[in-house]
């Protein structure tokens, strides 16, 4: 087996495992996870409608609580900052970055491919790749040294679901077109000279696969689904008072089938309804009813599980329960402290991926910013603040001598907005605020009457 075949085999095995794992996470995020109901096969068929109605997708809220706070608003690449932002916008990453980050939070990993592209005005193409289709092979013992990037995708538009495989090494790009998976690949030189498929892992580990935001949520989500299903069954069969009667002579009828066999069936004695009267000619007969099943236990169990979900995943309870009445700004901030800390940790690893991606892109266009090791991603504020709180904080920072451009960044302005604001200030310099001085005349001390000596 050649070295190329060995890399391809490793990539195929890793992608098969990775895609199976990602599909499971995607089902939970998309609200398509199975409902675990303690019923046999026949009852499952009977309660199919209940199974569908028992879906309550809390997993999506857990992921979105993190994803919605991870917004890239700029980069700091020194003199190449504007060039980096231009590459970012030329590849529609204002929108597509959110797709990659959400996939990474859900599945544990996602991928970004950077490659030279003459059809792109920026000269570089940056695209997000699904963990269902792409993976990276690393050097043994080194989780950062990429030996190869691999992508396997299906073209459903041609009608037969043909599969294409692409393996990228620092030297070559090998492609197995549809129908040639066992034949020799098409080989071409890699113009980038590097494996430019980068993996994004929000929760990496030194050993083992990266974690998903849904790892702690899935067991609780399954419990909630089962409880809701049981509540649906109880609602249909036990939430209404069931009538019983004694001393009733049940009528029977004989039904003859087409084959001549006869079957005796019991005729229901009563047609229960709010406008119907039940009668019994037997003086010793009795009527009664079974008590209905209360649903408070089911509702309380779901509420308890949701609270557990909020605590374990560091998701504010008001995100999941929708209850925010009579909460002060300080109380909301305290409730979101754990979420903000979690988002900051995710941003640390996601930001490292975006820095690597932008270095690759800058290198492909020959920009010296590719060698800047101190580059960083600028994120929108992770905390929830009112406009008044933000202005007050920035005003106090200005009194400490913080440059105005930094204050604009803290406000959340994008590099494009900052450039435009600087141009507008240059054309029409802002008038400094006028501080009125108020002259205060102190009153003269009261005259003291002379005191005569005794």
Ordered list of secondary-structure elements with their pairings:
Blueprint: H1 3-29, H2 41-46, H3 48-53, H4 58-67, E1 72-76, H5 81-90, H6 93-107, E2 110-116, E3 124-129, E4 134-138, E5 146-155, E6 162-168, E7 172-176, E8 186-189, E9 197-200, H7 218-237, E10 242-246, E11 252-256, E12 262-266, E13 286-290, H8 296-313, H9 317-321, H10 329-335, H11 337-364, E14 376-379, H12 387-399, H13 404-411, H14 415-427
Antiparallel strand pairs: 1-14, 2-3, 2-9, 4-5, 5-6, 6-7, 7-8, 10-13, 11-12
* Low-confidence runs of at least 5 consecutive residues: none
* Number of separate strands: 14
Gap between N and C termini: 123 Å
Major sheet: arrangement of strands:
4-5-6-7-8
Reported for the largest beta sheet, the result is: 5 strands, antiparallel
Structural class call reads: alpha+beta
* Element pattern in H and E: HHHHEHHEEEEEEEEHEEEEHHHHEHHH
- What characteristic shape results from the CA principal axes? flat
Helical stretch count? 14
